Amino acid sequence: MLPFYIMLFLQLLIPVKSKSVEITRTLKQEGFHRDLETVLSFKLEKEIVEKLTWSCQLLLVENLPSGVYVDVDQLSSLPDNIQVLVDSDVDIEAPEYASPPLLVYIFTNLTSDRSSITLPVHVRYHRPSNVSEYAQILIENPKIYSTCLHLSDYENTEGIGAPCDNQNSSQCLWNRLQVLYNEGKSAISLQVPIGVEQHSLFVGATTLLVTMTGCVILVWKIVKKSVDLQMRKKQL
Amino acid sequence: MLKAVYTLSIFGYCVIALLLRLALIGYGEWQDRSLMVKFTDVDYKVFSDAAHYVHQGKSPYNRSTYRYTPILAFMLLPNITLTPLFGKVMFSVFDILTGYLIYLVLKHQKYSIQQAQMYSCLWLYNLLPMAVSSRGNAESVMTALVMICMMSLCKKQVVLSALLYGLTVHFKIYPVTYALTIYFHLSHPSSKTDHYMKKVLNLFLPNKDKVYFVLISVLTLVLLTVVFYHWYGWKFLYESYIYHIVRKDIRHNFSPYFYMLYLTAEQDSVLWMKLLVFLPQLCLVLAFSMKYYTDLPMSWFLITFTFVTTNKVCTSQYFLWYLSLLPLIIPSIQMSIKRAIVLTITWFLGQAVWLQAAYLLEFKGQNTFIWIWMAGLLFFTINFNIIYNIIEYYKPLMQVPSYLSKKRK
């Protein structure tokens, strides 16, 4: 009798040991147009990998900061097994300080124990500064959800209601997966060049000086220049 | 063989030019299927999607970033019902039409058939418009409209040209800058003995043609606006007119004002700066309108060239607006071949310098704002130097009365 209670007690103390998805995030390319690559690796038994079909759905929920955006037109030409839904309209011309953060749902299917998702993101213009020539943008790690039975070992207790697919016509219950991020970092960062505020006066004055001078010279030229006629080479 | 080419009529040149464009469209199909880098213009999908909505009886403005007149979506309906290539073929036909109209305008200006053919070939066999229209960009519809409008004005068909002008401005707003020069153009010629003041007065005072032109073009524009507003509501007004006027894009572009506007984007109190940015555009459009109104190609070319160069936002797509008018004025620019080549090289060089700095910013993430700005000012200077030289070496075939300059004998 006693060992049973001890066992029960111990079971309550030690949580059920569930597995974690290992996630590696990298930003490829430089400058304003980047590829945000997310690699998910699962430790699955061979039999389960063989059972994986197109119905083993994964959902990545990205919370993109206002410093970056996704181009909805570009997203429609991603590979077939990746569908993306953005929660709001995206103004691709607006600067960072006039833009809201974006909630991006990425739907994909797990067909092996490894899945790689590349999301093209673009950097917005940022407010000029007189402290640094670059601004830093932090992109948080995504939350991973699934409806797939084969991944129950990875499930966390939380579940959310989210769109079933990128058509956004119905809601599904998604189970959140336990994750382990590479090197334990909670976000990936990138640098973006920004205008130098100290340049304002010099740039403004020089620009207007050049354009006004050009304008005055041309107007002067138009007024002074008399129009002569061409000598006709042959009579038509 | 060479003789056969030489004796081709304008129709022959047009047919060959069209075949070349069709071949490019065919090549584009191959590239889109085979390579990562797509040949088709991103906007082509926008037009096609808008046509799709119209086909379903919905508003073309359901497609985000559709910022054009609904007429364009109607014109592209065969994209849905016939073949997705229809639009590209249609844009190529408009492109050829532009070339043919260049020929007609030059002939109307009493240039020889050989000259008219030669200069229209500068457009028909120019790689830039060729690529633009076969990639599915609608810019050629605009160049053709501007050209038809000019042709009807040259032929003194006031009602027709007013209808076309209203339609052209409805399609894209920039030809609104030609309004003043058209108004002056419709003045009755004043006699040589007239007093200076009388001549100027004659320019501004209305006559029958001017009243007709203003009324009909304004009515056309208003009618089109009212009809489409009735059908598609506020979204039409915003996307096809207001957006283009209030557009405040601070991202890097060829404009000399780009960095200044980026640095001061959040300062609302700088009204005087806005005025100073607007002033050169206004002064030069006024000056060109008064000086060259008798020669519409010359005045429209200079107005468009300065308007694009001094605009707050300037991208390479806008260059086509003045390049389409260039073949019309080349025969009246009497500069040496050497000078013309040097000026052309500086124009390309200015863009190359800017593109290099912009590449380092956009694709390498280096802070090159100050270099992009300097390259923008350099390109501005180069463009103004070209305009200066065009004015200097301008010698038209026809009489141009001078109101702004005192005739020196």
From TrEMBL, chain A:
Sorted UniProt keywords: Endoplasmic reticulum, Glycoprotein, GPI-anchor biosynthesis, Membrane, Signal, Transmembrane, Transmembrane helix
SMART domains: PIG-X
UniProt key word Endoplasmic reticulum: yes
Residues passing through the membrane, by range: 201-223
GO BP annotations, alphabetical order: GPI anchor biosynthetic process
Membrane topology label: Single-pass membrane protein
Pathway this chain belongs to: Glycolipid biosynthesis; glycosylphosphatidylinositol-anchor biosynthesis
Signal sequence residues: 1-18
Localisation per UniProt entry: Endoplasmic reticulum membrane
A cellular-component GO term for this protein: endoplasmic reticulum membrane
Role according to the record: Stabilizing subunit of the glycosylphosphatidylinositol-mannosyltransferase I complex which catalyzes the transfer of the first mannose, via an alpha-1,4 bond from a dolichol-phosphate-mannose (Dol-P-Man) to the glucosaminyl acyl phosphatidylinositol (GlcN-(acyl)PI) intermediate to generate alpha-D-Man-(1->4)-alpha-D-GlcN-(1->6)-(1-radyl,2-acyl-sn-glycero-3-phospho)-2-acyl-inositol and participates in the sixth step of the glycosylphosphatidylinositol-anchor biosynthesis. Probably acts by stabilizing the mannosyltransferase PIGM.
Recorded family membership: Belongs to the PIGX family.
Name of the protein described by the UniProt record: Phosphatidylinositol-glycan biosynthesis class X protein
Organism of provenance: Patella caerulea
Lineage: Eukaryota, Metazoa, Spiralia, Lophotrochozoa, Mollusca
From TrEMBL, chain B:
Keywords noted in UniProt: Endoplasmic reticulum, Glycosyltransferase, GPI-anchor biosynthesis, Membrane, Transferase, Transmembrane, Transmembrane helix
Membrane-related topology note: Multi-pass membrane protein
InterPro entries in alphabetical order: PIG-M
Compartment annotation: Endoplasmic reticulum membrane
Associated pathway: Glycolipid biosynthesis; glycosylphosphatidylinositol-anchor biosynthesis
Coiled-coil region: none
GO process terms (BP): GPI anchor biosynthetic process
Regions crossing the membrane: 6-28, 89-106, 211-232, 270-288, 300-320, 340-361, 368-391
Primary location class: endoplasmic reticulum
EC number: 2.4.1.-
GO CC field: endoplasmic reticulum membrane; glycosylphosphatidylinositol-mannosyltransferase I complex
Pfam family, one: Mannosyl_trans
GO terms, molecular function: alpha-1,4-mannosyltransferase activity; GPI mannosyltransferase activity
Record-stated family: Belongs to the PIGM family.
Function noted in UniProt: Catalytic subunit of the glycosylphosphatidylinositol-mannosyltransferase I complex which catalyzes the transfer of the first mannose, via an alpha-1,4 bond from a dolichol-phosphate-mannose (Dol-P-Man) to the glucosaminyl acyl phosphatidylinositol (GlcN-(acyl)PI) intermediate to generate alpha-D-Man-(1->4)-alpha-D-GlcN-(1->6)-(1-radyl,2-acyl-sn-glycero-3-phospho)-2-acyl-inositol and participates in the sixth step of the glycosylphosphatidylinositol-anchor biosynthesis.
Name of the protein described by the UniProt record: GPI alpha-1,4-mannosyltransferase I, catalytic subunit
UniProt source species: Patella caerulea (Rayed Mediterranean limpet)
